[in-house]
Amino acid sequence: MEHDIGALSREWFEAVWNRRDDSTMARLASPTLLIHGLGEDGRPARGLDQFTAFRRTFLSAFPDLHLDVEDVLVDGDQTAVRLTFAGTHTGDGIGIAPTGRAITSTAIAIARWHDGRIVESWNEFDAAGMIRQLQSPQAKLRV
Length: 143
Description:
The chain is of the alpha+beta class and about 140 residues long. Helices cover about 30% and strands about 35% of the residues. It has helices at about 5-20, 20-30, 45-60, 125-135; strands spanning about 30-35, 45, 65-75, 80-90, 100-115, 115-125. It has a 6-stranded mixed sheet with strand order 2-1-6-5-4-3. A hairpin with a 2-residue loop joins strand 3 (about 65-75) and strand 4 (about 80-90). Helix 1 runs antiparallel to helix 2. The longest helix is centred in the middle third of the chain and has 15 residues, at about 45-60. It is globular, with a radius of gyration of 15 Å. It starts with a helix and ends in a 9-residue tail after the last helix.
């Protein structure tokens, strides 16, 4: 069966992140999903449960989070998605006390698909830019 993985990529971000739809997450992700860039301590996250935990934690920090898919590129069984996301930091899910500050940041997610499901993904986002927006205007980010 042929799948439009470009359309499925858009559906993933709209449904899973913007509508918080767990049923779409279960339908579009392999139970053995391997996720690079979102695991703790730099290790890949494995399985839908670890992705769900990451999403829950991130959304607890930014409960009004909204993602916009800017571009989707398809190459064989892979998609590359360029995203913009925005939210208000009202929870402590990312280990930083709530600041009440609004943030806008960018991300790129590359996914490998098999039979209409994500089996592996690589995720990069502008974490330094996000942290910079959460700091007080007087604070200096040290890298």
